[in-house]
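name: query_chain
kind: protein
chains: 1
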Amino acid sequence: MPECGLWEVPVSVSTVLRLPMVGTFVIGGRALLLREAETRPYLHLELHGIDLADPDSDGYDAVLRKRQPELRVPLQLRLDRPRRLLTARGRGTSIGGAFAS
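structure:
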């Protein structure tokens, strides 16, 4: 609805299992999805704050830490994977940046 500034942007999905390209799957532990995200011509990757949260210093409850998949992956790995993804793709932009151009 451009007349009111509201946009719906579908998240990319994997070609094999049709899993959504979200941080939980792409940077939180699915190497296959990370490789696919690096090579597909168009990618809309959805990230949430918890995707790059530090389970040791951000004060998350132990119960959540056990249940939340990304919090079980070492933080340094979750920080390295988006950098690797952006390097492999050659660039990236925010949604706001994409719509401004």
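note: The chain has a mean pLDDT of 85.
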